[in-house]
């Protein structure tokens, strides 16, 4: 009996292969995009965790502040089991340098093996460092041995060697190892300017990149939601169409419980098939996007991420779980109705869910309420998660408002229509709104996300390139290997150019977080070209006399310190904020001091970078001359254009992944629309047949269908554009500030929006084309049958 | 950090058997070498000699509580130069032995930051919070803890420094490998042991060894057995026997007034009488130690046969008692047992 019933149930899918395809592909797409994003996030987090666990740094309390190796010895002599760590970026690269003391560092699988002969001596004398397999060090570096277990992008050196490389006498922190005796004098008493930080379980890099991953996750969820619209539509339709079958099976004696069980088995089978497909798709998506993500993370945050996937069984299981959850959400309602279905209930052709004023009212109230919530959160909320909740409320609110607004507009259209055909067209469109509303909502979400993200990226790009043009004022940039070469270079070029602008920097603690301090000479280049977001009067003169510092927008926003306030610049002490400058593409705090003050504070900082001002026409000649004279590889002499290209490249990579996901989401939405129109087309035959019988030709009806789809898509696009602009505003003014620390102006892009609207029409047209064509080619006999069938 | 692998590189670059215990048989290229007829310069020679490959400050004490219970205390600081011009690396060993337990501790330090070191005047040798300090060697305080147990002892010298071998030039093999070696064997010790069951007040005798060299062993010498004994007549006896190769025996008989007489070769008899299985190895824990020229013939017994120092280079080190022609307490060190 089971077999017979199951055969009967499955026969439906054999008769409706397109519906089957919709269901499987929809679920696979939803699962695939979600699991793909999760795979990327998991891979990145794995890399961070390995980096953080290199010395058990994620699990140990640490003492931070101005500390030296002498302080380390003092702490050890006081009985404290501590080990020093220095952390920084390898100059001129995105590589992370970790200096350790091999004698006191805790055992850790990721730390290098110093047992080969001479390894320890070389390590202690700075002639040997250990690097992750993906690392290539610049020329002139000591011997690098590959340590396979090191986290990507990591270089490990002895602490004294690392201090020499980073040009500092300080260490970043002392890690407190297990085995602290209770009678010890507190570390913060021994070193009054320090603070003890308890482990939080997440590394700095993980915190820094949280926003990026939240971003990806949000996109993954959006794609998942859009995919579920498709699945919901397909399952709902299949259940509706099989109602007569269910009734027949029940009448033949199949218990309701058994029938429900069989349908649940069917759903489980779909979960397995679609889940598998989705996971494969997710793997593909992740593998394609991961190199871009890795490049972004390294370019933006200096975070090393392996660009090959290594997936855990949990990830595979979570893929199936998401597919299962998706089907349960999409099919649960239908199953529930089935359980309560009376045996002899008439098989009413419900033609999907009928539009009811009450439903529309509820959607309208819910949507409006969500928009109000979104507005309140945008204005008064704080924090990255709130920013994303605001985004979610905005999108969902707009989606919920779509059906009542569409219905209203169509009602107005119907009331103004003249003639029977026109009135029928409007009424028919209105009648279809409930059936299409889910697909249209999906289209709205995808379009709004597209408008929002492309507006954000466009605003960012315009602001960023303008800012680069201003900031990169020097015509040529020179990088010396050491102080000696720097002096030679400076002496050589001084008569050949209008000005030599040295760039010196040092890493220190700015208001409690690692950041860079730059020394800047007083020169019209800066006075003329540096855009300041906020400044005290006479800012450049006061900077030149050493009265204070300029800080970047990130530091200003994080600390809430703007022009006129006092800021703690670590070794540079407390300084008045003279101005705030924008500093895109840099997640860390930064400050600028006048050159003389900088040199007093950081006497050990070596200036190896110079900007040269000269007539742009002379640049190629001078570049050739310098290249030959100092035997410079290309990366050590760069002209303005080269640096701009590099910076823009980092920027483009940052948003490449977002853009890819955007396109995928829009594709999924178009598919949803197509699936809905196709199934609806099949169901509408009984409504179309009387119109045909009254004398309207199939071609006119088909054209009317096509036109209606375009109208609905156009209306959705019109609603999506303001939603997208609101979305872009939230991204620029709320999420970006929280995630990156900078706020950008919103630059409208009407041409882009129009293009997108046209594309959505094209998508809708394509989606409607097949159902319309089918209608056109439908055999008159099929239409006549409608009247013969007793439905 | 894989400290074991790390320090193995440091002390033991080549296989043990080929190069003697703990790499002490390595060639001394570029390092200073001990020469005969040394003249010592104090207090400078209390401090470190960075141009020699290896050096140690080695204190052992054999103490008793009010009930006559025997305990042993060890405090050692090693210095090793990786090349003749550095870097310097330091290692500390902690030992505390009771009749039924043995506690070990080990510390490592880089040489250039002050985490470990030695200053000659006022004298202090330290690594982390383990220290041995005083104005000079006549009165020292000694502190260390391994986190579980610890000790704080005061040591007062009751006799002069003693220079072993030929005026402090101590030969270690037939082909002439040697070290500079002097001792203060006359310490009276009082202080407290912090044991798991609470503090225990103790008194007893202590012995400080100072030794430095660049290649103290023949490459084929596997290890040694070293004795320091406080005889009941006030004399002291230091004896060692190097195993492997041709073998090498030496003893310093130190009269109660500090006069030292050296004995080489067969003059010293050191015979294992009984072994115990310690850390999977057969280690002699009962010895016959005899110096017939001085009418000394003793049976030496470990207070605790399990006095195993499970450090990077593991060895046996613990307090002993002796009976026979004399009664005595003292310390025994045995290295190179596989």
Automatic annotation (TrEMBL), chain A:
GO terms for cellular component: plasma membrane. This is Putative ABC transport system permease protein. Keywords: Cell membrane, Membrane, Transmembrane, Transmembrane helix. It comes from Jannaschia helgolandensis. Pfam families: FtsX. Signal peptide: none annotated. It is found in: Cell membrane. It comes from the Bacteria. The chain crosses the membrane at residues 216-240, 261-294, 314-339, 360-380, 386-412, 433-453, 655-677, 709-732, 752-773. Residues 218-329, 661-779 form the ABC3 transporter permease C-terminal domain.
From TrEMBL, chain B:
This is Predicted secreted hydrolase. Transmembrane segments: none annotated. Keywords: Hydrolase, Signal. It comes from Jannaschia helgolandensis. It comes from the Bacteria. Residues 1-18 form the signal peptide. Residues 54-214 form the AttH domain. InterPro entries: AttH-like_dom_sf, AttH_dom. GO terms for molecular function: hydrolase activity. The lineage of its organism: Bacteria, Pseudomonadati, Pseudomonadota, Alphaproteobacteria, Rhodobacterales. SUPFAM superfamilies: AttH-like. It holds the Pfam family Lipocalin_9.
């Amino acid at each position: 009996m089971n077999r017979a019933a199951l055969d009967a149930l499955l026969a439906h899918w054999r008769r409706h292969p397109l519906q089957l395809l919709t269901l499987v592909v929809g679920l696979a797409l939803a699962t695939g995009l979600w699991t793909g994003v999760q795979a990327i996030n998991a891979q990145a987090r794995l890399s961070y965790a390995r980096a953080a666990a290199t010395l058990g740094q994620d699990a140990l309390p640490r003492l931070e502040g101005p500390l030296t190796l002498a302080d380390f010895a003092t702490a050890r002599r006081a009985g404290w089991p501590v080990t020093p760590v220095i952390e920084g970026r390898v100059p001129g690269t995105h590589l992370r340098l970790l200096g350790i003391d091999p004698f006191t560092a805790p055992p850790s699988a990721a730390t290098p093996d110093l047992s080969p002969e001479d390894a320890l001596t070389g390590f202690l004398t700075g002639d040997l460092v250990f690097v992750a397999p993906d690392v290539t060090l610049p020329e002139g570096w000591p011997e690098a041995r590959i340590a396979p277990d090191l986290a990507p992008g990591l270089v490990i050196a002895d602490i004294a060697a690392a201090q020499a490389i980073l040009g500092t006498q300080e260490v970043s922190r002392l890690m407190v190892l297990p085995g602290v005796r209770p009678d010890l004098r507190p570390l913060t008493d021994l070193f009054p300017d320090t603070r003890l930080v308890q482990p939080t379980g997440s590394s700095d890099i993980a915190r820094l990149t949280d926003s990026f991953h939240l971003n990806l996750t949000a996109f993954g969820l959006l794609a998942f939601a859009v995919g579920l619209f498709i699945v919901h539509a397909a399952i709902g339709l299949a259940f509706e169409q099989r109602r007569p079958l269910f009734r027949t099976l029940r009448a033949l004696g199949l218990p309701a419980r058994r029938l429900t069980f069989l349908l649940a088995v069917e759903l489980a089978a779909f979960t397995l098939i679609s889940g598998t497909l989705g996971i494969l798709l997710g793997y593909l998506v992740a593998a394609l996007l991961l190199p871009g993500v890795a490049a972004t993370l390294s370019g933006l945050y200096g975070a090393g991420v392996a660009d090959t996937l290594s997936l855990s069984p949990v990830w595979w299981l979570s893929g199936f779980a998401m597919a299962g959850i998706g089907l349960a959400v999409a099919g649960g309602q239908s199953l529930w109705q089935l359980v309560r279905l009376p045996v002899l209930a008439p098989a009413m052709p419900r033609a999907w869910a009928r539009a009811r004023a009450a439903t529309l009212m509820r959607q309208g109230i819910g949507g409006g309420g969500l928009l109000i919530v979104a507005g309140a959160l945008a204005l008064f909320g704080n924090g990255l998660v709130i920013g994303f909740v605001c985004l979610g409320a905005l999108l969902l609110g707009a989606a919920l408002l779509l059906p009542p607004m569409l219905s209203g507009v169509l009602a107005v259209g119907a009331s103004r229509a003249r003639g029977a055909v026109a009135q029928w067209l409007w009424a028919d469109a209105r009648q279809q709104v409930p059936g299409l509303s889910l697909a249209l909502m999906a289209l709205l979400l995808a379009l709004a996300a597209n408008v929002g993200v492309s507006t954000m990226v466009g605003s960012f790009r315009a602001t960023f390139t303008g800012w680069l043009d201003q900031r990169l004022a020097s015509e040529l940039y020179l990088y010396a290997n050491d102080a000696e070469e720097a002096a030679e270079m400076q002496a050589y070029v001084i008569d050949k150019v209008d000005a030599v602008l040295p760039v010196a920097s040092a890493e220190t603690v700015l208001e409690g977080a690692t950041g860079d301090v730059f020394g800047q000479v007083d020169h019209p280049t800066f006075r003329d070209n540096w855009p300041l977001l906020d400044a005290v009067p006479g800012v450049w003169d006061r900077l030149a006399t050493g009265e204070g510092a300029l800080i970047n927008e990130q530091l200003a926003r994080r600390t809430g310190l703007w022009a006129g306030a006092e800021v703690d610049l670590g070794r540079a002490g407390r300084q008045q904020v003279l101005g705030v400058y924008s500093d895109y593409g840099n997640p860390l705090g930064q400050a600028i001091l006048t050159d003389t003050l900088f040199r007093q504070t950081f006497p050990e900082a070596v200036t190896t970078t110079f900007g040269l001002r000269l007539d742009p026409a002379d640049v190629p000649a001078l570049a050739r001359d310098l290249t030959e004279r100092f035997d410079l590889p290309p990366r050590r002499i760069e002209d303005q254009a080269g640096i701009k290209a590099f910076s823009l490249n980092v920027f483009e990579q940052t948003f490449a992944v977002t853009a890819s996901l955007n396109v995928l989401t829009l594709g999924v939405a178009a598919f949803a629309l197509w699936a809905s129109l196709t199934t609806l087309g099949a169901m509408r035959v009984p409504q179309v047949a009387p119109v045909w019988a009254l004398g309207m030709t199939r071609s006119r009806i088909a054209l009317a269908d096509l036109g209606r789809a375009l109208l609905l898509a156009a209306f959705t696009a019109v609603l999506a554009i303001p939603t997208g602009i609101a979305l872009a505003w939230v991204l620029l003014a709320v999420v970006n500030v929280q995630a990156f620390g900078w706020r950008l102006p919103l630059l409208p892009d009407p041409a882009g929006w129009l293009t997108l609207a046209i594309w959505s029409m094209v998508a809708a047209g394509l989606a409607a084309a097949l159902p319309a064509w089918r209608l056109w080619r439908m055999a008159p006999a099929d239409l006549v049958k409608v009247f013969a069938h007793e439905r | 950090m894989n400290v074991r692998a790390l320090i193995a590189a440091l002390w033991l670059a080549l296989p043990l058997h080929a190069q003697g215990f703990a790499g002490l048989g390595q060639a001394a290229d570029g390092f200073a070498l001990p020469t005969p007829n040394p003249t010592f310069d104090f207090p400078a020679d209390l401090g470190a000699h960075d141009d020699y490959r290896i050096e140690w400050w080695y204190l052992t004490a054999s103490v008793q509580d009010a009930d006559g219970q025997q305990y042993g205390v060890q405090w050692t600081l090693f210095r090793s130069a990786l090349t003749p011009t550095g870097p310097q690396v330091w290692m500390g060993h902690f030992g505390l032995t009771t009749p039924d337990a043995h506690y070990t501790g080990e510390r490592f330090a880089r040489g250039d930051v002050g985490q470990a070191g030695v200053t000659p005047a006022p004298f202090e040798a330290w690594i982390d919070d383990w220290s041995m300090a005083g104005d000079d060697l006549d009165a020292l305080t000694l502190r260390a803890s391994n986190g579980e147990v610890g000790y704080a002892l005061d040591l007062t010298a009751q006799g002069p420094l003693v220079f072993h071998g030929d005026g402090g030039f101590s030969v270690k093999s037939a082909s002439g490998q040697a070290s500079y070696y002097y001792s203060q064997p006359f310490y009276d010790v009082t202080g407290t042991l912090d044991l798991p069951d609470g503090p225990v007040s103790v008194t007893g005798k202590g012995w400080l060894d100072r030794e430095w060299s660049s290649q103290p062993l023949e490459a084929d010498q596997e290890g040694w057995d070293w004795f320091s004994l406080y005889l009941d007549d006030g004399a002291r006896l230091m004896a060692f026997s190097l195993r492997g190769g041709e073998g090498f025996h030496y003893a310093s008989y130190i009269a109660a007034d500090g006069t030292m007489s050296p004995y080489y070769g067969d003059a010293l008899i050191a015979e294992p009488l009984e072994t115990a299985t310690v850390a999977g190895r057969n280690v002699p824990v009962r010895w016959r130690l005899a110096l017939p020229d001085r009418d000394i013939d003793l049976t030496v017994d470990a207070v605790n046969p399990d006095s195993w120092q499970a450090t990077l280079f593991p060895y046996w080190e613990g307090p002993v008692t002796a009976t026979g022609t004399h009664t005595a307490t003292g310390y025994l060190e045995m290295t190179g047992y596989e």
